[in-house]
Amino acid sequence: WERPDGSPFRQRLLVVANRLPVSAVRRGEETWSLEMSSGGLVSALLGVKEFEARWIGWAGVNVPDEVGQKALTIALAEKRCIPVFLDEEIVHQYYNGYCNNILWPLFHYLGLPQEDRLATTRSFQSQFAAYQKANQMFADVVSEHYEEGDVVWCHDYHLMFLPECLKRYDRKMKVGWFLHTPFPSSEIHRTLPSRSELLRAVLAADLVGFHTYDYARHFVSACTRILGLEGTPEGVEDQGRLTRVAAFPIGIDSDRFIRALELPQVQENIKELKERFSGRKVMLGVDRLDMIKGIPQKILAFEKFLEENAYWRDKVVLLQIAVPTRTDVPECRLLYMLDFIVSDQKLTSQVHEIVGRINGRFGTLTAVPIHHLDRSLDFPALCALYAVTDVALVTSLRDGMNLVSYEFVACQDSKRGVLILSEFAGAAQSLGAGAILVNPWNITEVALAIGQALNMTAEEREKRHRHNFLHVTTHTAQEWAETFVSELNDTVVEAQQRIRE
Ligand code: ADQ
Description:
Blueprint: E1 11-19, E2 22-28, E3 31-36, H1 40-46, E4 51-58, H2 66-77, E5 81-83, H3 88-107, H4 122-145, E6 151-155, H5 162-169, E7 174-178, H6 186-189, H7 195-203, E8 207-210, H8 213-227, E9 230-232, E10 235-238, E11 241-247, H9 254-260, H10 264-276, E12 281-289, H11 295-308, E13 316-324, H12 334-362, E14 370-373, H13 379-388, E15 391-394, H14 403-410, E16 418-422, H15 428-431, E17 436-438, H16 443-454, H17 458-474, H18 477-500
Parallel strand pairs: 1-4, 1-6, 4-5, 6-7, 7-8, 8-11, 12-13, 12-15, 13-14, 15-16, 16-17
Antiparallel strand pairs: 2-3, 9-10, 10-11
Helix pairs in contact: 1-18, 3-4, 4-5, 5-7, 7-8, 10-13, 11-12, 11-16, 14-17
Bound molecules: adenosine-5'-diphosphate-glucose.
Residues 40, 180-181, 250, 286-288, 321, 323, 376-377, 382, 399-404, 407 line the site of adenosine-5'-diphosphate-glucose (ADQ).
């Protein structure tokens, strides 16, 4: 592959993530249809001009037969994607089990599941073994495709073992690892039975990145307290070898959102929404349906606001879009999804119950205060919603960054709406000066923030929006990816120099 102008790329970049950025649907024995997803990471890497990126990951489908695997591999190659084939048992133990039932809640301060509190329990041990095995399977695929000089960028909590597996394969490989979730305080991390193994495996990387300085600091503290290693301003040192640790706050492809606002379909959606909610202020929540997003807390705060502000009852509407997420893994049959389905169902019914109560209390025959949708929106609909919103509410209990807050800001250049943002989202560090920061556990505080946002003067909104818009449009996903990869290259060069000295 060449760059659009015909010149060669400076370097090859192997991006390794649990999921490939495609959805694959089998149409026949040897026929697959593929749809490229358009998430932040994809746009970020498409925008990186110097590197020729290839993706390595699981395609999200179970392909037990060789014919199907071969056909899928060929189809994916056109999209620069290389599949790792995981069977159902591994997916159950590694992905649903260790990743999403143990690491995800722990990293978001929700603790370990009760039955897994003891390292000796069978389920914990087998899930951890499957996690290591799956990481080795990813490493095997990377090593098949790796060429000297390539940069390998591993992503997220699914692949904490990968740096160690890769360095075992080739000590000189340039390996970076980035965490998209928070890294919790070392006091939380030390409750994890496999705490040391995971830290050591990550430290095998040359560069370790987090969204915020706080997460990086927590990681370094965990390494010093749990492993007894030395933390330095640069990272973590172990017997003269330095693993560089730093913050690389992610961004979005802001141009994509800004350009979308001009599309006829988006303009049409905006017009319809304006007519539909005319005379009312629009408040918006867009979240994956997940415990960490604080959806019940958000709705309860809105209820408190309506309770205490009768004037606003027929003048404001909250649109809450909550997309059920982990059900997008087709082969996670009911049995495998049990833990999530139960907790997602509990969360959904809890949210439905609160919404029903509030609409019953404050609704009229012609209008209800909350519209709650349990589904995903397509890109034009999402952009239109962001554009017509007066107040966006992000009340995550913990969130690595939270890109919804960035997307909202990118779509608000004509409206200058207000962002209410949880102080426990990584985005609070970058958009804090423009947003109203809240503790989502404090319903009264959030209710007051809603009042403050709805009553804010145009000058104040303008000032806050300017700050956030400048940040979102300058600290983009492309900049994030470029900075990480060039820092990784520099780190390796510096390490080689140190060895020579
Ligand atoms: P997520 O937890 O998925 O990502 P977030 O950063 O908010 O959280 O990104 C969600 C994405 O999904 C956004 O692009 C949003 O537009 C989209 N989305 C959410 N709900 C939707 C809906 N109902 N309909 C359509 N689209 C919807 C993880 C971490 C985050 C971190 C990112 C990137 O948990 O903290 O910011 O990775 O590192």
